């Protein structure tokens, strides 16, 4: 082989040999190639470039991961579409779920599929707090005998889609209002003609019932 007028047994690094009936020469590889088979096919790349199908690329295409030591693009694991290393996937192919850098057909126990992210996420069950105190007894509905009281508890943690659902956080029970005993009955005697004149006394004091006796004179 000839390079700059010198005959060599083989071409130096960064060059490739071409043969013809008249002369054999060493031709320099492309600038991004450390070594090459011919002008269009690199066999080794400079640092910061990765070999892919005979070319030195700045980055590897999807489905391949850059091997910094060999300076080449290697295949990701089966089922992986994008990976940062051969054993660490960041996106799986359609129908597979990502879990800890690996692609799974189904999510293992303790995990559930997130079909939007296409990842296996930790399964979360509902968690509630303690019951609060019973509230005031109040009338509910049309029946005057229907008195109830309510108590509640808070949801501390909401469940994921396949986690255990929340139990009831509100419950009712019947109650009875304890009435104060009436200390007496106010009896008011008024004349028909005085009914409006003394109307202010028709309002009973607290805890008294009103009873009016009509007397005609």
From TrEMBL:
It is found in: Secreted. One of its GO terms (cellular component) is extracellular region. Keywords: Disulfide bond, Glycoprotein, Secreted, Signal. Residues 1-73 form the R-spondin Fu-CRD domain. The keyword Protein biosynthesis does not apply. InterPro entries: Furin_repeat, Growth_fac_rcpt_cys_sf, R-spondin, Rspo_Fu-CRD_dom, TSP1_rpt_sf. Its main location: secreted. It comes from the Eukaryota. PANTHER family: NEUROHYPOPHYSIAL HORMONES, N-TERMINAL DOMAIN CONTAINING PROTEIN (PTHR46987), R-SPONDIN-3 (PTHR46987:SF1). This is R-spondin Fu-CRD domain-containing protein. It comes from Oncorhynchus tshawytscha. The gene is RSPO3.
